[in-house]
Amino acid sequence: MKQTLLLLPGDGIGPEVVAQARRIAEALVPDVQIEEGLVGGASFDAHGTPLTDETLDRARKASAVLLGAVGGPRWTATARDKRPEAGLLALRKGLDVFANLRPAFCFPALVDASSLKKDRVEGLDLMIVRELTGGVYFGQPRGIDEEGGLRRGYDTAIYTHPEVERVARIAFDIARGRNGRVTSVEKSNVMESGLFWRQEVTLAHAELGAGVELAHMYADACAMELVRAPKQFDVILADNLFGDILSDAAAMLTGSIGMLPSASLGAPGTPGLYEPVHGSAPDIAGQGIANPCAAILSLEMALRWSLGKEKAADTLLAAVGKALDRGARTRDLGGDLSTRAMADAVLNAL
Ligand code: NAD
Ligand code: IPM
Ligand code: MN
């Protein structure tokens, strides 16, 4: 059966960067069948919901899903459950992609694009494994209401044993293919869910972590260490919220958030969801100047993790490196290439 890649371009710069990833997929893996669908604000505008049952169904049947970005000022007044971001969360939950892999590595050509000194980021290569379908993002109860005359807003940070164990297992497996070190982060000094996270990761390590060195760090200290000495990390294991925040910080170490891809994985044999770490960038949307590399590298991860095309993935990764070596730069990297011209540079280097 033919492999299918479902593209969900979404909003803002999403369609601009996904269009470039599509050109590269067509050139590199012509045997993969490419389909497109709507998600986020684009889906809300067309169907009144940010994720239709039909799109979720198509995503479940695809070999892999590549999403651009969702959201934008146009939908800030929309009801929360209809907002673009709700569509993305429903897609992650619907595909049960519980492990979000967010690599942060510094291409040699970009050491000077980082906000940190060259010696701090040269050779940087870390992987954040973020739990993606639980925690405070989904915990109940949550709401904004009034009790005893007091207006309040609240969320629930909650993790269960299987949720922590399955994502810890992935972090250990990934560490084994790297430098064998996992740093698990939480706030066990103040949060019960954080203490539980630490206990569960420790138990999982005893059972599943052979050959892996496990360390624990408070999430705030981790944020500090990420900008002080990022090369100390190999794999960072974090819950949904801390992983979200720490991965944005890690993104900037590499030069631009426009460079960083992610892979979200569920049970073996189920489709992975691939997306740039960046959002819809309303401030530059429609100008054709967004960096398409995060989307292109998300395609690279899809080739590697879902489509079993490791050689094509290696070729694509090398081509992005080569294009950067040759000086190809979008504006966020201090250059002046358009989104399309940046993708052309990658295509030429393939
Ligand atoms: P953002 O990532 O969209 O933008 C942050 C900054 O980075 C902006 O200055 C933007 O111009 C720049 N930037 C981002 N991607 C870039 C690229 N490829 N090339 C060049 N510059 C780039 O984050 P935000 O402004 O906080 O959020 C905007 C909207 O996107 C919100 O609605 C938010 O909810 C949504 N969002 C979606 C996702 C997603 O779909 N996965 C992720 C983050 C934010
Ligand atoms: C991300 C984004 C999303 C998140 C939003 C848009 C729902 O920030 O993918 O990092 O918080 O997970
Ligand atoms: Mn985020």
TrEMBL record:
Q: What are its GO cellular component terms?
A: cytosol
UniProt binding sites for Mg(2+)? D220, D244, D248
Top-level taxon of origin: Bacteria
Family matches, as InterPro entries: IsoCit/isopropylmalate_DH_CS (IPR019818), IsoPropMal-DH-like_dom (IPR024084), Isopropylmalate_DH (IPR004429)
Cofactor binding: number and manner: Binds 1 Mg(2+) or Mn(2+) ion per subunit.
Binding sites annotated in the UniProt record for NAD(+):
72-85, 279-291
Instruction: Say which family it is in.
Output: Belongs to the isocitrate and isopropylmalate dehydrogenases family. LeuB type 1 subfamily.
Summarize the subunit comment: Homodimer.
> Where found, per UniProt?
Cytoplasm
Keyword terms of this UniProt record = Amino-acid biosynthesis, Branched-chain amino acid biosynthesis, Cytoplasm, Leucine biosynthesis, Magnesium, Manganese, Metal-binding, NAD, Oxidoreductase
What the entry lists under Gene3D superfamilies is as follows: Isopropylmalate Dehydrogenase
Which chain positions carry the site (Important for catalysis)? Y137, K187
A Pfam family of the record is Iso_dh
Q: What is its EC number?
A: 1.1.1.85
Q: What is this protein called?
A: 3-isopropylmalate dehydrogenase
**GO terms (BP aspect):** L-leucine biosynthetic process
Q: Name one GO molecular function term.
A: magnesium ion binding
Chief location of this protein within or outside the cell: cytoplasm
What SMART domains has UniProt attached to this entry? Iso_dh
What is the organism field in this record?
Answer: Hyphomonas neptunium (strain ATCC 15444)
Catalysed reaction equations from the record:
(2R,3S)-3-isopropylmalate + NAD(+) = 4-methyl-2-oxopentanoate + CO2 + NADH
Protein residues bound to substrate: R92, R102, R130, D220
Required co-factor(s) are:
Mg(2+); Mn(2+)
Pathway field: Amino-acid biosynthesis; L-leucine biosynthesis; L-leucine from 3-methyl-2-oxobutanoate: step 3/4
* Designated gene of the protein: leuB
**Segments forming domain Isopropylmalate dehydrogenase-like:** 4-346
Per the entry, what this protein does is: Catalyzes the oxidation of 3-carboxy-2-hydroxy-4-methylpentanoate (3-isopropylmalate) to 3-carboxy-4-methyl-2-oxopentanoate. The product decarboxylates to 4-methyl-2 oxopentanoate.
